[in-house]
UniProtKB/TrEMBL annotation:
InterPro entries: Cu_oxidase_CS, Cupredoxin, EfeM/EfeO_iron_uptake, EfeO_Cupredoxin. Residues 134-150 have a biased composition (Low complexity). It comes from Kitasatospora gansuensis. This is Putative cupredoxin-like copper-binding protein. Residues 29-118, 166-256 form the EfeO-type cupredoxin-like domain. Residues 1-21 form the signal peptide. Pfam families: Cupredoxin_1. Residues 132-169 are annotated as: Disordered. GO terms for molecular function: metal ion binding. Keywords: Metal-binding, Signal.
Length: 264
């Protein structure tokens, strides 16, 4: 008698299970495609596939999957004077067969995502669009919540207009194997300054310029520049400390293509 009842209950539970499961997975699917979920970027040696290209302003996490045979890196570039050269964020050294997350806060506008198999060159670029009103997203997307660390960094910036003129320009010459600029070793800058770095390649192979903040994180990059050519990047100096310039190609930095400056 009792076992019959147990069986009946069990039977009912089993019958109910598929329904629950179906319901649950349906919910997961819809939330994965919403902005709160991760957006997959699949990089191979010849492709850079992004799961979607239209976004709402706010925080997005890209799930980067390297299905190629070469180590890759993925960049998000913002638009600057009609070209996509402003590094919004990037993840480097994504080995073949591995995955990494790339969180980013997107404000309205057009961006290019670049997958760079072999970690060199302009990469394979795809455009994404973030909808919305450029004037309003920051206050609404960034409630004064101290828990959102990405938001805190943003609002902590002295916030000159991101498209405004830089406070100064520094021309860096690159050759094998050194970086050189005027006032090197004694250059100091102030917190809040925006500096436009121009990299002029006076060598005979490609060079690039990576800029690291005091915490070792990349704050900007001049993509690889061919001999005789120039590239630019504007960076905001948001915290005091020692900043580092490096050529990120091969072992160039180890061979001497590195420099530092101080921000007070
Ligand atoms: Cu170099």
């Amino acid at each position: 008698m009792r076992s019959h009842r147990t069986l009946a209950v069990l039977g009912a539970a089993l019958l109910a299970l598929p329904l629950v499961a179906a319901c649950g997975s349906g919910t997961e699917n819809s939330s994965a495609s919403a902005d709160s979920g991760k957006v997959a970027i699949t990089a191979t040696d010849s492709a850079c596939d992004i799961a979607k290209t239209d976004f709402q302003p706010g925080d997005v996490t890209f799930a980067l999957h390297n299905k190629g045979r070469r180590t890759t890196e993925v960049y998000v570039y913002g638009e600057q004077k009609g070209t996509f050269t402003k590094v919004v964020t990037e993840v480097e050294n994504i080995g073949p067969g591995t995955s990494r997350d790339m969180p980013v806060k997107l404000t309205p506008g057009t961006y290019e995502i670049a997958c760079k198999p072999g970690q060199t060159g302009d990469g394979i670029r795809k455009r994404i669009t973030v909808q919305g009103d450029a004037a309003s997203p920051s206050p609404s997307a960034a409630p004064a919540s101290p828990s959102a660390s990405a938001t805190v960094t943003e609002t902590a910036q002295p916030s000159p207009s991101p498209t405004g003129a830089p406070d100064r320009e520094i021309e860096v010459e690159a050759k094998e194997y050194e970086l050189e600029f005027e006032g090197m070793d004694k250059l100091t800058a102030k917190v809040g300054e925006r500096i436009e770095f121009t990299l002029e390649n006076k060598g005979s192979v490609e060079h690039e310029l990576e800029l690291f903040g005091p915490d070792g994180k990349v704050i900007g990059e001049v993509a690889p520049v061919k001999p005789g050519q120039k590239g630019k990047a504007v960076v905001s100096l948001t915290v005091p400390g020692t900043y580092t310039l490096k050529c990120g190609i091969g072992a160039h930095a180890d061979k001497g293509m590195t420099a530092t400056f101080t921000v007070n």
